[in-house]
Amino acid sequence: RVGHLADRLGVTPQSLRDLGIGGDVLPVGEDNNRPRVSPNYTFPMYDADGAICGIRKRPFHGNRKFCMKGSKLGVFRRVTPGAGLLLICEGESDTAAALSLGFDAIGVPGAGNCASIVAAHARGRDVVPVADNDEAGTIGIEKLSVKLRKGAASLRRIAPPAQHKDLRDWLQ
What we know:
The chain is of the alpha/beta class. It has helices spanning 2-9, 13-18, 92-100, 115-122, 135-148, 167-171; strands at residues 22-31, 34-46, 52-59, 66-67, 75-76, 85-90, 104-108, 126-129, 154-155. Strands 1, 2, 3, 4 and 5 form a five-stranded antiparallel sheet that branches. A four-stranded parallel sheet has the order 7-6-8-9. Strand 2 (34-46) and strand 3 form a beta hairpin. The two termini are 20 Å apart. The relative contact order is 0.15.
């Protein structure tokens, strides 16, 4: 199934493994006394200390994303402190795109979310937030940049060319 999602998203299977992809089956009701289930891909989210704080789900069929009950928002992919360039992306699929291109990257579950957690993971690093080409992406990257300026070694923001909605679309 990892290959199926990698093909659908236009990313490498390894990038999804690097994000900790998993799966589950969610019961959604019954038809003719038979249980109906909805299989989901799962992605762990991490807090500022690198501990799992939540699980993001994405159905095998469709693009609607949601969090497991009891989850707190965090970043996609735990990174070890170090030097070098770190891309900050919006969503697990853009993070997988950055990883597919060979970059070290973490992702946020939505524009402007988890700025304090991102700042903790990016401290002392050269950081490049990658905006989505929409209003939320523009506002979110500005909010994130304010937090990152305090601890990043350097900060440079980018966005894909105007004809692409996000990094993953640009990669494809």
